[in-house]
Amino acid sequence: MSDTLSNASLSNSLLATIMADESFRPNEPSSLSDTGLPISLVESLIVKRLSNIGVSSGRQLANDLCLPFSILEELYQTLRLRKFIVHKGSAPLNDYNYSLTEDGRDRAIVYSQSCSYVGPAPVPLMDYVLSAEAQSIRAESPKRSQLRNAFRDISINETLFESLGPAINSGAGLFLYGEPGNGKSTLAQRITQCFGQEIWIPHAIYEDGQIIKLFDAAYHHRAQDDGDSLMSAYAHDRRWVKIKRPTVVVGGEMTMDSLEIRHDPNSNVSEASLQMKSNCGCLLIDDFGRQRIEPQELLNRWIVPLESRIDFLQLSTGKKIQVPFEQLIIFSTNLEPSQLVDEAFMRRIPYKIEIADPSTKEFHLLFRIYCEKFKCQYEERVVDYLLQTHYIPKNRRLRRCHPRDLLSQIRNFCVYNDIPMELRPEFFDRVAKSYFTDVLEGAPRTLAKAVGPQ
């Protein structure tokens, strides 16, 4: 008996510790009114779901809508009385299987014409706003140890590390600029890992009769969920999903349209903007200055949100809504930032960090790191041969991507010829011919600048 009480006490203590680490956790609704949704909306989701699958148990329908079965039982009964659904036999655990009647199928058509969304029930906009504010990336202040852990398996020199630290800690925007191939995008994507690992976001949002889809598998990665864990036993609102803090990366394909709520007039379902999808995480604008939109257009669109941390978006109904602008904005560019935007914009992006070419010492370190990943023996003399033969005579600039790319080509050559992968001078001679071209070389530099400090 004492052991049981001890175990229970330990479990409760552990659960309390886990919960204390969460700034926000959605509680399971105990009634339909607790969902914050009109009953007619929940009814439409049930009818449309049955129209899609034909027959389903009450519990399975509740699971599909991510709502507790207990709060839907009365609604099932109401739909039966209105002759929209009918019992199709018993189901386990004191449940029934349901299907649509003829009137129910007609009603499903009407609902689908109004809005074709079928899936987890949405959450009210205000609930989402409160969650984003509670889980803001600015509420955290990553320390040196957290940065070390996030960048542990990539090469980053100490000077750059000291510059990145305060910038990331501030939670404000930053520019990463420098020559292509030096790891700006890689660094930007690692920055999210410096912050708390997991947040809650809803599958969809409801406001003014509109459903806005937020969860996007392309950007949002579910946190690992252990079915036997204490957290699984603690009930939460399943309309929300726990994810790792998102890193949304957009490049030259970004348009002004992607910065607004996009509405599909055929389905009458809306899609959240990139800013909303990146809330509580990082938004990386890669190759800034090469988008389809002019930097000045982006300036005009974001100059107020960058200052106030609030964005205003328009629904298809014409209503303007206010949503948090709570992400770390990172601009990665090969161009000088001052050539792209004016002083007003630069003032709102307080940190500008240049990612310079690696030194020869770091270049060797990169080869050592990638040799381990490619499972081949690192040979310092062979890397020296590469520098003396293919870099110094041609005033070729070092890039952090070169070790990875050259080793990848060597691996492909060895696999094709069915020979062991090794660092050999003749292998570098072969792959250098196909990797380096005069067109991509850029302007020549002096020997000292080409190979960097020793």
From TrEMBL:
**Signal sequence coordinates:** none
Q: Tell me the protein's name.
A: AAA+ ATPase domain-containing protein
Which CDD domains does this chain map to? AAA
Which stretches make up the AAA+ ATPase domain? 170-359
Say which domain of life the source belongs to: Bacteria
